[in-house]
């Protein structure tokens, strides 16, 4: 019988890449969508799979909707990707962030425990949980947590709840502690996409500058299309476990800016970039860099796309998008 997967966060960045990956393995995909006033299937359409997903309704903040859903569909696997995932917004909307990112996970795990205890569960954990902590300049599975935002804190609760349901009830649960991963369908507020989108607009004369916050922050950036394979592999192991996933390299926001302008063929990036305190955070995570030896050894996973290829892919996709919208440019 075909495997079934419920993907929460199906309309975001990772949901579509994961759905595409699993569809190629003949999974039946259920995608959780919340009630919308206007449908937004753009990311699934970009990957040409919008008509290949069975959409089911529910909200991470509404326990009954999730209990009912799991009782009815009892999927082989659940990939919990839904979240209020923007760190900056979590400072302003801490309660909402907690309800969706922390309590939402409790709702899903309770639903599994009550109605479908053989369902395997993947939790989208994050390098933001490490915050200020590192082990010799890297973060791995043994590095302690010191989150620096309500987002990071909400994900620490979800991480430990995921571990607890494994230990207390024997449910197959795994945490993928993923470092930043990006793509042409990355949300436009996140810094890489904000940069490539603005660079494309500048290139074709639709914008004059780009306002950014901390240019010195360093992140371990990979390609989302590569990272969804690691999610899948975690749920194919004999038992649930926790894995750090990243490239092992980090780069500053400034380096990403330089590359993006270079790939667009625009010299003197400094003339366009305005450092704006509006985009600085009350408490920042200065630097993150993954040590994913465990994922490489046990899952056999490694990234396929490097930093330069990622930046080039994103710049080219945004330029192409604006050229289609503005054919005379
Ligand atoms: P994303 O693009 O922001 O997508 C998040 C999705 O969650 C959206 O589709 C959103 O639905 C959905 N969602 C939000 N609140 C919800 C609610 N109350 N009920 C149901 N759905 C809700 O995030 P992403 O980049 O794909 O990341 C996927 C997951 O990985 C997230 O949990 C994120 O925190 C985590 N993560 C991401 C990264 C990264 O670098 N991308 C790294 C580590 C961990 P709408 O479309 O309706 O708004
Ligand atoms: O910021 C700095 C900012 O918003 C990256 C989420 O997917 O990855 C993501 O969280 C860095 C930060 O991502 C601007 O201060 C400078 O240091 O792209 P970001 P994030 O906060 O790292 C983790 C792993 C997740 O789990 C999250 O869900 O860039 N920065 N200037 C800026 N950031 C933004 N957004 N906008 C700026 O203008």
Automatic annotation (TrEMBL):
It catalyses: GDP-alpha-D-mannose = GDP-4-dehydro-alpha-D-rhamnose + H2O. It comes from Candidatus Roizmanbacteria bacterium CG10_big_fil_rev_8_21_14_0_10_36_26. Its EC number is 4.2.1.47. HAMAP family: GDP_Man_dehydratase (MF_00955). CDD domains: GDP_MD_SDR_e. Pfam families: GDP_Man_Dehyd (PF16363). This is GDP-mannose 4,6-dehydratase. Gene3D superfamilies: NAD(P)-binding Rossmann-like Domain, UDP-galactose 4-epimerase, domain 1. One of its GO terms (biological process) is 'de novo' GDP-L-fucose biosynthetic process. It is an enzyme of class 4 (lyase). Catalyzes the conversion of GDP-D-mannose to GDP-4-dehydro-6-deoxy-D-mannose. SUPFAM superfamilies: NAD(P)-binding Rossmann-fold domains. Keywords: Lyase, NADP. Belongs to the NAD(P)-dependent epimerase/dehydratase family. GDP-mannose 4,6-dehydratase subfamily. Residues 6-314 form the NAD(P)-binding domain. PANTHER family: GDP-MANNOSE 4,6 DEHYDRATASE (PTHR43715:SF1), GDP-MANNOSE 4,6-DEHYDRATASE (PTHR43715). The keyword Repeat does not apply. GO terms for molecular function: GDP-mannose 4,6-dehydratase activity; NADP+ binding. Its cofactor is NADP(+). The keyword Lyase applies.
